[in-house]
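Contributing new records

If you add data, match the layout below exactly. Sequence lines come first and carry their own label; structure lines follow with theirs. Keep one chain per record. Anything else will be rejected by the validation script.
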Amino acid sequence: MDTSRKQYKVNVRVWITEADGHFLGLGRVRLLENIRKTGSITGAAKEMKMSYRQAWQMVEDMNKRSATPMVEKILGGKGGGGAKITAAGEHAIGEYYRIETLINQFADELNKEVKL
């Protein structure tokens, strides 16, 4: 057997799309998780080193494409405003990771057979 032969591996990136474009991918899932962690879109954007505008546009896009909003704004008061993940957002996070796990398990099986 030729030991100098290169080894190749199948890698997969998961995107869930909707008729008009991307709905959910790892970056958006991490944004949702950071909103959950920080309680705000501003805080989530800072965690990800992304502009507030970009984070807000991603949230608006996800909310528009989802059957029900994934993020809700909390209006200001004594402590100021913020944002929270809805039940739909929590479900989307879990479903994304479930799908990603299944696809990666399949890719791992394929990697046993890759012969290029």
